[in-house]
């Protein structure tokens, strides 16, 4: 335009200019991404870790190993105490192995003793083994008869994600107060484990704080996770001396999903595609409904998700709109979704 020369698609000069323009665009994209790493909202990975240094005692939560409690049985009663050494290993399948965290002394005349143990592999891989499921001992000791876990293993967590870390960084400002504000309890509870997704802190009586904990994907915490959160909140530098803090799982408000949907006769999508989309909408609604405490059971949101799939209409028997208090969480019990067939417009 400036020179008055027409550059045709195959003109070498045009190709050279396009090559230069491509480099300039890529360079500007890189510069833009680099600049965004200076802002916590957009920073990722090590950049976000570095920015966290400007916040008070806030660091990315590292992966944690699952814990459980073992009960070791002796084959006979002894006149003296029997030692189960620290580090005694018990495995699930030869790959996932737990080891005791301290020495266990089974007293004279007793047939068993209990001791906490930790998984040798960090992360969520050690979670969810129910009582009696971990029973294969690796390190034998005298008079051993059998061993089993008496609590469901839990507390294992992966490294904290950027999204969760950034959110906790913002919440860390609440921790400056020593007067026991709700935000401080929420922040300190989340520092216990990256598995903690939602926290409710309510005081119904003077000096008594009721803390409820919900894990990722709406999972209810087991005893191992609750112990970790309670320990984090009970630290001398965290808990106001006048507060009595209790930590527990949220109360459950059960609901069902029972509905019938109808497909338009001349719809643009096939029945098979709509069926898949409806199933995905149900999963999305379930996740949304159960991942946060105090979230009312809201069938209107379910309807909005279903209508986006291309169905004509939906008859919902349940759930019904239900208020959910701040220390409670909605939990799905059963699902019954029926395809009602085709209907004319």
Automatic annotation (TrEMBL):
Occurrences of domain Baseplate protein J-like barrel (ranges): 80-155
Family annotation (Pfam families): Baseplate_J, Baseplate_J_C, Baseplate_J_M
Residue ranges annotated for the Baseplate J-like C-terminal domain, each copy included: 270-334
Protein's UniProt name: Baseplate J/gp47 family protein
InterPro entries, sorted: Barrel_Baseplate_J-like, Baseplate_assembly_J_pred, Baseplate_J-like_C, Baseplate_J_M, Phage_Baseplate_Hub
Alphabetized PANTHER family for the sequence: FELS-2 PROPHAGE PROTEIN
Domain Baseplate J-like central, chain residue ranges per copy: 177-249
